[in-house]
Amino acid sequence: MTVLLVLLTFALFILIDYYRSKKPAMQLAVEPRHAVPAPQHVVPLVVGGFRVPAHLSYHPGHTWALKESAELVRVGMDDFAARLAGKLDRILAPERGRWVRQGQGAISLKRDGAKLALASPIEGTVVEVNDAVLRDPDLARRDPYGEGWLMLVSAPDAK
Q1: What is the distance between the alpha carbons of residues 157 and 97, in angstroms, rounded to a whole number?
Q2: Which residue has the higher pLDDT, 44 or 91?
């Protein structure tokens, strides 16, 4: 009797397996995922503890550029330079009408008798200098991407 019960159990499992293989496998009702394309260029807002706004163009000389119109470009120093410079005694900017070359010193920062030149990120003619920063050099350190901008340059070849 026990042998017969074991044989019937095996036969039952074989039948179940046979019918299962004939039915299509159960499919989950999950909608297919569409791949979301990755953004072309992702710049974090904070890198290594320093603010790096994504809408600006940066120069290795620790300056930034923001295209304001077809020919006008606003220039300032980045957060790294602002923190590194610390409390400034004076900022020397080029006079209006002066031609500045990209990569060459255009802005000078003075602190405790030492002088540091910041490279221009763009080539063109200086049309405006931020007089508020010249009067209060600490403004460039406190708000380098806002009110602490340094100069406006007319750059006809700006891209």
Answers
A1: 17
A2: 91
